[in-house]
Every structure is written in structure tokens, then in C-alpha cells.
Amino acid sequence: MNIQKRLLAVCFIVASITAQAQKAASKLYHEPYRLQAHFSPKEKWTNDPNGMVYYKGTYHLFFQHYPKASVWGPMHWGHAVSKDLIHWKQMPIALYPDKLGYIFSGSVVVDENNTSGFGTKDKPAMVAIFTHHNPKGEKANTSAFQNQSLAYSLNEGVTWVKYLGNPVLKNPGIKDFRDPKVFWYAKDKKWVMSLATKDRITFYSSPNLKDWKKESDFGQMLGAHGGVWECPDLFPLKLNGKEYWVLLVSINPGGPNKGSATQYFVGHFDGKNFTPSSNQTKWIDYGPDDYAGVTFGNTGNRKVFLGWMGNWMYANEVPTVKWRNAMTIPRELSLKLAAGDIYLASTPVKELNKIATQTLDVDALQLAKNNNIFSVIKQTPTQYVLKFNTAAVKDYAVVLSNAYGEKLVVGYDAANSRYYIDRTKAGQSAFNKQFAAIAYVPRVSLLPTSNFELLVDVSSVELFADGGLSTLTGIYFPKKPYTSLGIINNGMEIEKLQIQPLKSIW
Ligand code: FRU
């Protein structure tokens, strides 16, 4: 097909996707700003993803949820399941607050060896380890109002029973004592818990998930400390056949673009202590809207990360009504060598291809002649992937805009070797004065060429540059959807440009 025909074909696909979208405009999951390629709760509030685990062919995603309002409140664990990490089905609420408190963040493991005695070896229990947050204790200004508790499920996560011996890990007097992430450390045949304890991570171990012993503390003098440490995750990843351990630590506030963000450390873990191999502070995603992310358990060597697409600076105020906040696209994590150090790279999981429709490949010669490549597409889809390669020597930018003069710009600033998302003119921002800002991520790669991959959804954009070495996530709220897509290439050759419209997951 020549380029005109291809463009026509894409216009046709785009027009029919747009028509479908318009028809469904007010229906559930198709309200204004509702993301079409990302999980968000059917209605009401969400923040952190919790208890993510793969079991018997199903991915489970639990999430911090307040089912009575679209603002943060007494926390429950909502629940959703997926066969492919992309299409999600919301299930009944898994955990309700009780007399020990709200149900804060935590993790789920499959107790294959029945160490807890909650199941049997033939029918192992799924066990949730979460923080009980006692609001009365908090109000009374005590310090021991966050404790770790258990619940288990014998029917693959559909219903849950809280353990009568809760809490299993009592607070020693630390105000911020939460977000347990547990995994089976096979070498020593024990469970290991990473717990956020104010300004550090404390590691505990247990033979049975009920009795916990403190092993060590990490990080009081390392990394970023602009806010409280939350939501840790510790897991191994290989680089060139050698095993490393990665520790994720979310912090709020104090992120590189203000507010909430997630830093990470690469190093070694011996079952007791975590030792980082570099003292540099690194961030899994520099954007303002990727927080409290952790990885799915039980996925073997594959590590899939998912974060909350929000920021505590304004999460309670973003202009959605029926529901509030969503999750990032699930991301495959890998370690990469760049600029003489080891970095964590993230890219969208390959399962995203399941919803990709016909790809438009744009001719390199055609692109070279043009500075505003996609003005030819009359109407862009509401969700799509855009990819291209280019030299990293001059500025370039992708501009999404609408007829109201609103625009979102994602680009590269060559003079400062950094990528950015500029949402200063992207749409609504009066709900919070911190919202309209430019977020930057340094370019880590030293290669002369770069690749640029954008995942655009109705009200979110995720940038994965240089194979995911530089990542930025941001949400935005235009008055009307963006309908045009331009690329400013400053005369530079843009190669292998593809645009892939995505089908809605709902
Ligand atoms: C992170 C966090 C966690 C806590 C949860 C409460 O966003 O503050 O530390 O468990 O949210 O909803």
C-alpha cells in the first residue's frame, strides 16, 4: 500500500473507533476522561495497587479503594482479575475495614507449602499480608496505630477470611509502619517481608507468615528523603546472567517532579541484608503520576510492575466524577547497563499488542520532507501507541492538541539531555495549582540514536524512551479530546515511525 492509501486506511479505523467512542460517551467506562487501555475502578476512589499476584492463569490486582466516595476514605481492598494484564474484570470487594482499622496497602502470596496452615498442600491458600491502620489511634496521637495482619482465601481470591490472631506483626512505636511486601526466599526456605518504617525499609522473615523476626534496616542515610518512605518491593533480576536484587521505595513528597514518586536501588540481598551497589538516587519513573508501584508475585523470572497513576498533591481533586484515579499500564522490568551503571528499564508488557489495531508505518522519506507529519490525520484516535527512532542531537516534540487551543507536548530537550512532558496548556488545571507543570527526566543512554515510545490514552500519557531507560507518566484533562497529532522534528530524520490505534478494553 502506498502512503496515501495507508493513511486513508488509518483514518477509516480511527473514524470508526471515534464513532464507537462517541456513541458510548456517557456509558459506564466511557465517561469523559475514562481511560480506555488502563484499569480504573468501576466507580469511586482508588490509590495504590495491592496484592498483585499471578495464580492459576489469572492475574489478580487488588487496590486501595473507598467504595462510598470519589475521595480517599476508610480503605478497603478492591479486586480485579485479568487473563492478560490488559482486560480487567472487577470482582466483589475483597477486604473491608474492621475493628482493627482500615485496610492499607500490602501483598498477596500463594502459600504452596501450606506454611501458614490456612490451606492444605493440595489446596494452598492465597494469603494477604496488609497493614491495619487504626484511625482512632491516629486521632489520639498514639504512635502504634499501624500493624500488619493476615487474611486468606481458599477459592482463588473470590472471598477472604481474616486471621483471628491479627495483627501478626505489632508496631514497635513507629508512626509510619506499613505496606508489607512478602515473597518466598527459597534459599533459606522462609518468607521475607519488606516494610516501610518511616525513613527506611525494615526486612523481616518468617517460617509461617504468622511469626516475624526483624532481620535488618536499610536506607536511613541513602536515597531520597524528601518525604515518608512507603510501599517497598524487593525482587531479583538478572543482567547478563548475573543476579541482582532491586529494591523499590516510594516516597511522598520529595519526587523529582514534586510530590509522590518511586525510587529504586540495585544491589545484593543475602536473606537478611540488602546492600546497594551504587549510592546514586534513581527513579523508576520521573513523571508526576506513577506512584506506589510494585511487581506481581508468582511470575517466575518475568517481573511485571504496575503503579498508581496519581500523585498525592492533587489525587483527591482531579476532575473526574464517577471514579477517581487509575493504574499505569503494566510494565516489564529489566536491568540495563548504561553510562557505566546499572539501571532499571520499563516498557509496556507485550500483551498490550492484543488491543493494537492495524499499524500505520510511515515512510522515512515522506517524513524527512515534513516538519509537521501528522497534520494529515484529521482526527487522532483516543488511545494509541506512537513509536519512532531518531538521532538524539536536536530537540524534537510530539504535540497533541484540540480546537480549543489546548495542547500536551512530549519531547526531547537536546541542550539539557532530557525528555519532558509539558502539560502547562494541556487542559483543566484550576483544581490544583501544582498540576500545570513541565516534568523532566534525564536521558541516561549515551547512544547517538534514541527511540521514543508513547502510550497515549484518553487522559494519560506514558513515555518510554531509550528502551525504557527514561520514563515519564503524566495525566491531563483537556476540555475536549485532542484530535490532532503533530511532530516537530526540526529537520531531523525520524525513522520507523508507527502509530498503532488501540481498541478499548471495556
Ligand atoms: C501510599 C499510601 C500507603 C498506604 C496507603 C493508604 O500511597 O499512603 O503508604 O498504605 O497509601 O491508602
Short description:
Helices cover 6% and strands 45% of the residues. The protein contains three helices and 33 strands. It has a six-stranded antiparallel beta sheet. A five-stranded mixed beta sheet has the order 4-3-2-1-20, with no helix packed on it.
Query: Which fold name fills CATH's third level, the topology of the largest domain?
Result: Tachylectin-2, Chain A
Catalogue the unreliable spans.
1-17
CATH superfamily of the largest domain: Glycosyl hydrolase domain, family 43
The N- to C-terminal Cα distance equals 32 Å
Task: Quote the average pLDDT.
Answer: 93
Strand order of the largest sheet: 23-33-24-29-30-31
Strand count, sense and closure of the main sheet?
Answer: 6 strands, antiparallel
Specify the number of helices: 3
Based on CA inertia axes, which overall geometry fits? globular
Please give the domain count. 2
Beta-strand percentage range: 35-45%
Helical residue percent?
A: under 10%
Describe this structure in words.
- The chain is mainly beta and 506 residues long.
- It has two domains: 42-348, 5 Propeller (Tachylectin-2, Chain A); 356-501, Sandwich (Jelly Rolls).
- Helix content is 6%, strand content 45%.
- It is built from three helices and 33 strands.
- It has helices spanning 3-23, 135-139, 364-368, and strands at 44-55, 58-66, 76-82, 89-95, 102-110, 126-133, 146-153, 161-162, 177-185, 190-197, 201-206, 213-218, 228-239, 242-252, 261-269, 274-276, 282-285, 291-295, 304-308, 323-324, 331-338, 341-348, 360-362, 384-391, 396-401, 407-413, 418-422, 438-442, 449-457, 460-465, 470-475, 484-488, 494-501.
- The strands form seven sheets. Strands 23-33-24-29-30-31 form a six-stranded antiparallel beta sheet. The chain has a five-stranded mixed beta sheet with strand order 4-3-2-1-20, with no helix packed on it. Strands 13, 14, 15, 16 and 17 form a five-stranded antiparallel beta sheet that branches.
- β13 (228-239) and β14 form a beta hairpin.
- The radius of gyration is 23 Å and the shape is globular.
- It starts with a helix and ends in a 5-residue tail after the last strand.
- Mean pLDDT is 93; it is low at 1-17.
- The structure holds beta-D-fructofuranose.
